[in-house]
Structures are given as C-alpha cells and as structure tokens.
TrEMBL record:
Catalytic residues (positions): 251
Chain spans, region Disordered: 316-335
Name of this chain's protein: Aldehyde dehydrogenase family protein
Pfam families in alphabetical order: Aldedh
Naturally occurring in which organism (per UniProt): Sphingobium phenoxybenzoativorans
Family statement: Belongs to the aldehyde dehydrogenase family.
GO molecular function: oxidoreductase activity, acting on the aldehyde or oxo group of donors, NAD or NADP as acceptor
Domain Aldehyde dehydrogenase: 16-476
Length: 491
C-alpha cells in the first residue's frame, strides 16, 4: 500500500488552520478498501470561526469588490482548476472510486461551469419598473450573505462548481462542507481559491461529519444553505434553518422515468439507456432507473439491455479497461445489495447481474443489474437505490406511460423516445419533472436550469435561475414629484 496522504488543515479566513479538536477523517479508497488519506475534521468551534470569517468578508473587501472584478477572480479560479485537472481528478477517483476518465471529465466541466458564471458576474441586473410617471422604481439583486454549500460524495468537484459559480458571481461568501466519505478534493480546491486571490473569508472549507453540517445549518449567521443529497437530510436542514428563516435550495434525488415508445429509434434509445442506467456506478440522482418500454418492443429491449449490462467491466479507477468503478462506500454497496434482494423477493426477473463481479475480491463492487417485469409500486421501482440497478417495465398506451412515470414521490429528470413530434410535446408537458428530454436523456449544461418537482428538491441550479437563487430582491422607489401631499389629519 502506498503512503497515506495528509490534508491536515482546514481552510478558514484565507488561512490553513489546524482543526480545533485535532481530529481527522480517514478516507478509504473504495476499490481497495484501504485508507489512502487523512483529512482534517472540523467541529463547532471551527464552524463559528468560518462563519465569522465569511461575514467579515461580506462586510469588508469582498462586499466592495466590483462585479467585473468578481468575475475576473472566478475566471482565474476556473483556469487553475483546468491547470490542475489531472491532480484533482486523481484525488476524486481515490475518494469515490469513479474511473479516472470520468473524474477528469467532471473536473474539466467544473472549470467550464465556473467560466460561465464568471461571465455572468457583471450581468446580475435588477429591473426598472414603470410604477408611475413621477417616481423612479427599480429593483436591486443583492447577495443573500453567507452561503453554506453541503456537497454529496458522488461528484464533489462538479457539484461544488454548480454552487460556487452562481454564489460567488452574486457576491456571496461561501462555506463548503464536503461529504465525510469524500473530503480531500475540496481541500485541494481551497488551495486553488487561495492562489486565485479571493479575499480572505470568501471561500472556506470545513470537512467533518454530520454534526458539522448540522451546526452550519442551524447557525444564525448563515443566510442560505445549498444542499445536494437525500430528502431526509434536506428536511432536517429546513427544520434547523428555521432559526432565522434561511433560504434553502435542495436537489434531493430522483427515480427517473425513461419512456420508449414503439416508434422510437431503437438502437439510439438502447445505447443511451445503457449509459444512463449505469454511468457513475448508478450513483447519480438522475439515472434511468425506471425504463418503460411499449409492449411491442419490450422483450427485445429488455434482453438487449441485459446483454449490454453484462458486458460492462467493473474495475479499479486507474485501470484504462474499467467501465465503472466500485460503490463509494461499504454502506452504499450493502444498501444496493439489499435492494437487489428486495427485487428478487418482489417477483421481478433478474436478466443481468445481481451479485458481485468475479475476479475483484476487494473493493465495494456490484454487478450492473437489470430487472424485468418489476411492479412500479415495488420498492426497487419507487426508492432511490443509488447503485447500478435498473428496472424495465412494459406499458401499452401513452396515458399509461404518463401515469407510470408520474407515480413516484420524485420528479427530477424524465425522458421519452418517439419520432412523433406531437406526442413528444404532449407527453413532455405532462411529465412531472424539472428536466424532460426527448430522444436524449439528462442533457445537463451550465445554461440549462436543473432541479426537481415534489421530493426531488426546491429551486434550480445552473443558468441565470441559479444566480437569482443566491440573491435577495430589493425594491427601491424614489419620488420625483415636488408636490406636497395634503395633510390627512388636518381639520
């Protein structure tokens, strides 16, 4: 085993600070089950210090930084992320087990996200309102203040850029709380923020356990929490954040419908379904986890999807032959295996996978698994598994497909495949999801608003909608009239 790397400082107020309690997180390489790094772990004292530093930045130089200058700092930050993409991707792969080609792509896209929002920083405009001829009325979009970004373990750098980009462009100070399983890449990212030249306290990084996230969520000095993760945690954040009516934006998972009508381009739909069901080892909120196929295509589609799933090669993240890596933790692997067992018990057919791959005695690996004939009300079809498991189910009519797609508490992503233009628009309008795609799936881009209906979240990330989520609207009215109003209380 190689030497354990140490990330033994927190980043608070522009400085590398020893954790108050002197504790560290041991982070495990999920492909080997060995500890590969130790990362400093914050406590409530560190939380107090980080919030104070962020508030001081808002009152100090960051609050006086011109929008164009903010954009220039974000652009420099993006360039540094591109420069160090290989190193950042290596850290991410060791932390969460994704193949290196995937994490490298994610880091490069994170730089693109930051570049987009760098260009938006001096375009955060209010509106002039024609309230009345003798008054000037306008709105200002002002930063909400100190923002806490609580990150998931599946794509830390990518999702950090989704929050840092609009948050910084709008002029907020940020505190990043990475997941306990994958803290190292945020410490590396903090070093680039320091090099970029952000004023002290604008970006702070606090690795730690759930108690750190809870303390940040409840802190009265924090104005907003942006969180990606489970809806159960989001509910707790809302409850603790009620102390000062925090602004909240949440992305909380999905159980995405992937609808294939009988007139679809079969080969294209099959290829996209395979990728969309198993990329990132199924550890994404927007997987094609419920695949509905119109009955004339059903058996063929299910069989060919299973054949493709069987050819997917799980393996170590640095092996160029690897298609997908391990689950990020033993806990997540065990959870996925428990759902596979539930699927079998419910009567669904296993067409591919269902076990651990041969030849990989160590690591949190699960075979890509395809169920057929699942009941849409069964737990494998209703609950987010977050593993390489998908269910294929038949339907007969368009109305049935829509009803099945919407029969879930989630509503993040949906997709449909058809050559009928009228059907495409008709069905898209009825799917209860924040993002609906036709003849493609999950086209995520920094220009496209992304977020969920129902239990999939609150608010939108990406696009200019994201910037508005990090601002407060202030209305200003200036009376231009010289007329003196009558005294309403005169005799």
């Amino acid at each position: 085993m190689s030497a354990i790397e140490r990330f033994d400082r927190l980043f608070i107020g522009g400085e590398w600070v020893a954790p108050h309690a002197g504790t560290h997180i041991a982070t495990i390489d999920p492909s080997t089950e060995d500890v590969w790094a130790e990362v400093a772990s914050a406590d409530e004292t560190d939380v107090e210090n980080a919030v104070a530093a962020a508030r001081a930045a808002m009152r100090g130089p960051w609050g006086r930084t011109a929008p164009t200058q903010r954009g220039a700092l974000i652009a420099k930050f993006a360039d540094l992320v591109r420069r160090d993409a290989a190193r950042l991707a290596e850290i991410e792969s060791r932390d969460n087990g994704k193949p290196l080609r995937d994490t490298l792509g994610e880091v490069q896209r994170a730089a693109d996200w930051l570049t987009f929002f760098a260009g938006a920083a001096d375009k955060v405009n209010g509106d002039q309102i024609p309230y009345r001829p003798d008054a000037l009325a306008y709105t200002r979009l002002e930063p909400v203040g100190v923002v806490v970004a609580i990150l998931p373990w599946n794509s830390p750098i990518s999702l950090a850029s989704w929050k840092l980009g609009p948050g910084l462009a709008a002029g907020n100070a940020m505190i990043l709380k990475p997941a306990e399983q994958t803290p190292a890449s945020m410490v590396a990212l903090a070093a680039l923020a320091l090099e970029a030249g952000f004023p002290a306290g604008v970006i702070n990084v606090l690795p730690g356990d759930g108690a750190v996230g809870a303390a940040l969520s409840a802190h009265p000095g924090v104005a907003k929490v942006s969180f990606t993760g489970s809806h159960d945690t989001a509910i707790r954040i809302m409850q603790s954040g009620s102390v000062n009516l925090k602004r909240c934006s949440f992305e909380c998972g999905g159980k995405s419908p992937f609808i294939v009508f009988e007139d679809a381009d079969f080969d294209k739909a099959l290829s996209v379904a395979t990728h969309s069901a198993f990329r990132s080892t199924g550890q994404s909120c927007s997987m094609a986890s419920r695949i509905f196929v119109q009955r004339p295509l059903y058996e063929r589609f299910a069989a060919e999807l299973a054949g493709r799933a069987a050819r997917i090669r799980p393996g170590a993240p640095f092996d160029p032959r690897t298609h997908i890596g391990p689950q990020t933790s033993a806990e997540q692997r065990d959870k996925t295996e428990s759902y596979i067992a539930l699927g079998r018990e419910s009567g669904a057919r296993v067409l591919a996978g269902g076990g651990r791959p041969a030849g990989l005695p160590k690591g949190y690996f699960v075979e890509p698994t395809v169920f057929a004939d699942a009941d849409n009300r069964s737990r494998i079809a209703q609950e987010e598994i977050f593993g390489p498991v998908t269910s294929v189910m038949p339907f007969d009519t368009e109305d049935e497909a829509i009803a099945l797609a919407n029969d879930t508490r989630y509503g993040l992503v949906g997709g449909l495949w058809t050559k009928d233009v009228s059907r495409a628009h008709r069905v898209a309008a009825q799917i209860e999801s924040g993002l609906v795609s036709v003849n493609t799936f999950r086209p995520v881009h920094f220009m496209l608003p992304y977020g969920g209906y129902k239990m999939s979240g609150i608010g939108r990330e990406n696009g200019f909608d994201a910037i508005r989520a990090f601002t407060e609207t202030k209305t200003v009215v200036v009376d231009l009239s010289d007329a003196i109003p009558p005294d309403p209380f005169a005799d």
